What we know:
Structural class: alpha+beta
Mean pLDDT: 83
Helix content: 40-55%
Distance between the termini: 92 Å
Strand order of the largest sheet: 1-2-3
Shape: rod-shaped
Low-confidence stretches: none
Number of strands: 3
Strand content: 15-25%
Largest sheet: 3 strands, antiparallel
Order of helices and strands: HHHEEE
Amino acid sequence: MTRRSIGDARGGAAVEFALVAPTFLMFLFLLLDGGRMMFAKQALYELASASARCAAVNATTCPLTGSTTVSDWAAARGKARSNLALDRTMVTVTQVTTATAGVCGGVAGMMKSTITMPFKKGAMMLLPQAVAPASLVATACFPTSS
């Protein structure tokens, strides 16, 4: 019986799968979580650019002050287009009036939009903190028409 079981290869695939599957699944979930983070970051950059442009070009739809501001517009657009969990407090749009504002390339007369959104890692928590920070930040500038 011992000789017969030495040459028997039944169950070998199951053992190999049990050894390889955890690593494969961890890598797969890491890729999915990283892709979700990259999607959210790209959507935030697009939204920051659009909100800075809207505030600079269309002051009636996207005013800086009032009951419905560009922050409300950006939060609604982020929810509708990319399903981002945003509210008006996460969006800041200001007019850069001095040439010392380094974020806008040292150029005055720009609308600057900054969006900060908390990012919750996936259930596996595989992404390291350096790669997936606690919050994602996107900043964009657009020249004002005046």
